[in-house]
Design brief:
It is found in: Cell membrane; Membrane. With 312 residues, this protein is mostly helical. The chain contains eight helices and no strands. Helix 1 packs antiparallel against helix 2.
Length: 312
């Protein structure tokens, strides 16, 4: 059964990546109204009589989301039944279904009644959390046969707090990025990393969209610097842990790729594939942070149960 669960979990995780990228594609191609204000039908029909490019994008996203939702539900039920004895499995099984339904409802509400840019920007963040719960469930399934050895790992309290703070801050940065998309502020600053002629103090006369764009760039820069500093701490304190050093090396690579793709969005004038890669990198980075939160939670549990000394 574990073998089948592995395949199912991998399909669900990959499917959620397509859901995330599909949502980004809908926004970036302006296909939010591709099916009008009708949901879950398209223009009030199961199969529209006429198709437009925007309709195909929106309808494809709905079909993929619905199919992945069924896979996630099946995965959650089977994982609960066969791996419910693992402490985190039941919580993640419920959470994966809950956040998937929540993001679908937010999307449906936006289609039928419309939402402000600030509310719409929440959608991608909810989708990220949904992806993270499924990604963690997948890792737990692979842990079941000891493919991932984390039993001896203990993360110090100060590092647990910092990892949690970094994850919360990442969600805030993701929100600013989503706000850039929904307010159509992607190309309002022609230069990079600063807005005009790369002059950092030339902020007089910025309009709302330029403040949104530069606010995102500043928050992203802080995220990168913070990740680099935490990576150095992790390597110094957990150099014997393959999971920590290897995992944080992947996380650091992802956030650097995120910055590179963000710059290329400006240089390529919003190339669609670069923009989708930008969404992919931050999704994977958030997934990695979620895994470290799970490991940190285990360390805290061990301390409370007396299995390890807090100063270890």
């Amino acid at each position: 059964m574990i073998k089948h669960l592995k395949w199912l979990s991998v399909v669900a995780t990959i499917g959620m990546i397509f859901v995330l990228l599909g949502g980004a594609l809908v926004t970036k191609t302006g296909s939010e109204d591709g099916c009008g204000d009708s949901w879950p039908l398209c223009e009030g029909q199961v199969v529209p009589s006429e198709f437009t490019f925007e309709m195909v994008i929106e309808l494809s996203h709905r079909l993929v989301s619905g199919s992945v939702g069924i896979v996630v539900l099946i995965l959650a039920i089977i994982a609960w039944k066969h791996l419910g004895h693992i402490r985190e499995v039941k919580f993640l099984s419920v959470s994966s279904v809950f956040f998937l339904v929540l993001q679908a409802l937010i999307g449906a509400a936006a289609v039928m009644w419309g939402q402000s840019d600030f509310v719409l920007a929440l959608h991608f963040g909810i989708s990220l959390i949904s992806f993270a719960t499924i990604f963690l469930l997948t890792l737990l399934i692979f842990e079941a046969d000891k493919k991932l050895d984390t039993e001896s790992l203990h993360i110090q309290k100060k590092h647990r707090i910092e990892i949690l703070a970094l994850m919360i801050y990442t969600l805030a940065v993701v929100y600013t990025g989503a706000l850039v998309r929904h307010t159509e502020s992607n190309l309002v600053c022609p230069d990079w990393p600063f807005c005009y002629n790369n002059e950092p103090l030339n902020v007089i006369g910025y309009n709302f969209q330029q403040w949104v764009q530069m606010g995102h760039r500043l928050s992203a820069a802080i995220l990168v610097i913070w990740t680099i500093l935490l990576f150095i701490k992790i390597v110094k304190n957990y150099k014997k842990s393959t999971v920590m050093v290897g995992g944080w090396s992947i996380a650091l690579s992802l956030i650097l790729l995120q910055v590179l793709s963000g710059a290329l969005i400006i240089f390529t004038m919003l190339n669609l594939f670069i923009a989708l890669a930008h969404a992919l990198f931050i999704s994977c980075f958030f997934g990695m942070l979620s895994y470290f939160i799970l490991l940190a939670n285990r360390s805290a549990y061990k301390e409370k149960s007396g299995q390890v000394n807090e100063t270890h």
